[in-house]
Design goal:
340 residues, alpha/beta, Nucleotidyltransferase, domain 5, 11 helices, 10 strands, 19% strand, globular
C-alpha cells in the first residue's frame, strides 16, 4: 500500500519540499537563498520573505516530480523547530492550511531528529540503514551533538557543545580569512590542497563528551592577527595550509569525543549527520576510525546532509505510522528541547 508523505523544511535559508512513499524518495526539491551571500550570513527577515516567495512553487514542483496527485498524500510533515522563528512560521502556516484544505493530518518534526533519521531514506543508491542502537554525531552551523539513538524517537544527547558549533567555527574562520559565505565548503575545498599539520591552534580540554569551539575561534583570530602584522599577505600566501590546519583541528576535536563515546557505550554502529557531515576531512576521519575501532559507519549522501525536506518527510512517515499527529494550535520553537 502506498503511503505518500509531503515534507516541508523552512528552518533557516533553504525552502524545501519532498514527497516520500514510505521511506522511498519520490522527490526532493530545494530552493536556496542567494540573498544572504553579500551579508556573510543569514539575515532572518530576508530569509522569511524568501520562504514566502518560494514555498508554493517548491511544493508544487515536488508533487509534480513525484508523479502523483495531491489527493494521494496521506499527511503533511513540517519542521516545527529549532530554527529561525520567522522562517519556521512560513512552513508551519502552510502545513496547517494544506492540512485543512486536503483534510489530512499534519505531523510536526524536530529538525535535529530529522537529520539523524535521514539515514532511513531509501532510494536506488541508498538502501543500507543503521541498526538500533547507534551513535550519531550531528554537526551543523548551529548544533554539535553526540546522540545515542535507541529508536526512531528515543534519542538521548550524551555530548554537545557548551558554546559554539563546529559549523559556525568553519564559517567564522572563513570570514576572518576573507573567504565567501558559506565558508565551510570553501575551507573544505582549499584544505584538500594544503598541509593539515602546517599550523597548530589551541584545542580546548572539556570533560566528558561535551565540546567547546569558542576558544578555537579566538585562537584562529589571534594567530592570524599576529601573522598579518608581520606580513599583510600571510593569509593569501598560506590559504590552503591554513584551511587544511583549521579543518584538521575541528575534525580531530569532533572525532576524539565520538571515539570516546563509542568506547564508553560499547556501540560500534556510528553515523554522522547535518551539514558538516558533508566535509571530506570528516569522511576520511570516519573511515579511519571505522578501520581502527571496527565500526559500521553511516555517512549520508550530500543531498541528505544539508537542510532538506526528504528528512522531514521520512521522520513524518515514522510518526504517521504511530498516529503521532499535531493539532492546528501547534506553534514553532526556535530552540531545541534537550533530550537527557
Amino acid at each position: 500500500m502506498n503511503t505518500y508523505i509531503l515534507g516541508i523544511e523552512s528552518s533557516c535559508d533553504e525552502t524545501s519540499a519532498a514527497v516520500l512513499n514510505g521511506t522511498r524518495l519520490c522527490s526532493n526539491i530545494i530552493a536556496s537563498q542567494k540573498v544572504h551571500e553579500k551579508y556573510g550570513g543569514v539575515v532572518p527577515e530576508l530569509a522569511s520573505r524568501a520562504h514566502q516567495q518560494n514555498i508554493i512553487p517548491v511544493i508544487d514542483t515536488a508533487i509534480k516530480e513525484a508523479n502523483i496527485n495531491k489527493n494521494e498524500l496521506q499527511a503533511v510533515a513540517f519542521t516545527r523547530g529549532p530554527g529561525l522563528l520567522g522562517s519556521l512560521l512560513v512552513g508551519t502556516s502552510f502545513a496547517k492550511a494544506f492540512s485543512m484544505a486536503m483534510d489530512i493530518p499534519m505531523v510536526e518534526v524536530d529538525h535535529m531528529d530529522a537529520h539523524i533519521l535521514a539515514h532511513f531514506i531509501t532510494d536506488e543508491q541508498h538502501k543500507k540503514v543503521p541498526e538500533f542502537p547507534f551513535l550519531c554525531l550531528t554537526v551543523s552551523g548551529g548544533h554539535t551533538q553526540i546522540v545515542l539513538v535507541k529508536d526512531y524517537f528515543d534519542m538521548n544527547i550524551i555530548g554537545q557543545t557548551i558554546d559554539d558549533a563546529a559549523g559556525e567555527t568553519f564559517d567564522k574562520a572563513a570570514k576572518i580569512m576573507g573567504l565567501p559565505y558559506p565558508g565551510g565548503p570553501v575551507i573544505d575545498k582549499l584544505a584538500q590542497q594544503g598541509d593539515p599539520f602546517a599550523f597548530q591552534f589551541a584545542e580546548p580540554r572539556i570533560p566528558d563528551l561535551n565540546y567547546s569551539f569558542s576558544g578555537l575561534k579566538t585562537s584562529i583570530l589571534y594567530f592570524l592577527r599576529d601573522e598579518l602584522k608581520k606580513d599583510e599577505q600571510f593569509i593569501e600566501k598560506h590559504k590552503a595550509n591554513l584551511c587544511a590546519s583549521i579543518q584538521h583541528t575541528i575534525v580531530d576535536l569532533l572525532m576524539k569525543k565520538l571515539i570516546l563515546a563509542s568506547k564508553q557505550t560499547g556501540i560500534r554502529q556510528v553515523a554522522i549527520a547535518g551539514g558538516v557531515s558533508a566535509n571530506s576531512g570528516l569522511h576520511q576521519a570516519m573511515q579511519q576510525a571505522a578501520a581502527e575501532n571496527k565500526w559500521e559507519i553511516y555517512i549520508p549522501k550530500l543531498s541528505y546532509s544539508t537542510d532538506n525536506a526528504a528528512m522531514i518527510a521520512v521522520a513524518g512517515y515514522f510518526k504517521y505510522k504511530q498516529n503521532l499527529f499535531a493539532d492546528h494550535n501547534t506553534t514553532p520553537y526556535a530552540r531545541q528541547s534537550i533530550k537527557k
